[in-house]
Amino acid sequence: MKLQSLPLARHLGGVVLTCALALPTLAHAQMASGQTLYEQLGGKPAITKVVHDMIVNVAADNRINHFFAKTNIPHLQMELVNQVCEGTGGPCKYTGLSMQQAHKGMKLSTADFNALVEDLQKSMHSNHVPLGLQNQLLAILAPMEPDVVHQ
Question: tRNA-binding as a keyword (predicted)?
């Protein structure tokens, strides 16, 4: 299945955005080294690779891929990269919808939310993101669940 031809729902594109929209709380997160999380992750090239691979994982994930249709994948990837970049202290700006707006009327379950998080974890692991940095990113997802599920 080609990524470009995968049916991805326009308004379900927001599910994938879940991960990135959570990141603004980390916008100025820094380690003792003084580096932002953005820098520790490897900047925009590394973030772009993780986001791309997460989208590939979602496309192959039968638990949630059925939600997606008619989404412009390159645009979705660009928005996700901008969100993660900005949220981790990078120079990018995200201008997309809030989590509540993006998921309104979708009736996503906790299992759907968790499946997306697992797809992100797989992407980070396959891209050799250190566990501590993975945890920094994932720690902000749990509080977002109410803005995503059952909307």
Answer: no
Strand positions, DSSP E, 4-134: none
Query: Of all residues in the chain, what percent carry a pLDDT higher than 90?
Result: 44
Numbered residues of the known binding site for heme = 103
Q: Which two tokens stand for residue 74?
A: 């390159």
CATH topology of domain 13-148: Globin-like (1.10.490)
Enumerate the domain spans of the chain: 13-148
Check residue 19 and give its pLDDT: 45
Indicate the DSSP class of residue 143. G
What are the residues whose beta carbons fall under 8 Å from the beta carbon of 14, sequence distance 6 or more?
Answer: 97, 99, 101, 102, 103, 106
Write out pLDDT tens, residues 18-29.
444 444 444 444
Q: Does the CA dihedral 123-125-128-132 come out positive or negative?
A: positive
For the annotated binding site, the residues are: 103
